[in-house]
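@channel sequence for tomorrow's demo:
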Amino acid sequence: MHYEDVREQVLSGKTDAEVLEWCFANGRQLTDEEILIYNSFISKRGWHDDETRILAEIITQFGLRDDGRVLTYFDLIEMDEGRWRPDMWRDANMRAHGGRAFLSTLGSLLESIVASGTSM
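structure tokens (generated this afternoon):
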């Protein structure tokens, strides 16, 4: 399956469920384990690894602005398919973890680590 084909399905206005159904019909259905492994891998792909330089080249090839906000292939796909906004991942993380309470807890934890002299 090629990215361009999936992108075409997304841009045609299909829902995520319809695109997924199309992928299964034109590719193969992955096991839960395969999905977990792939998502864990690709969610960071391009960020400080052997693909970082290549990702920057692809951003330029797509005619997108390389302003340092696109750090992973997931970011690139979201931008290319028109769903990108700079703080989308931070906002999603805050919703998933209780927003400000999560940040407050994280800040307190980091202060404790710094105060104790423990290195991270």
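heads up for whoever presents: The mean pLDDT is 80.
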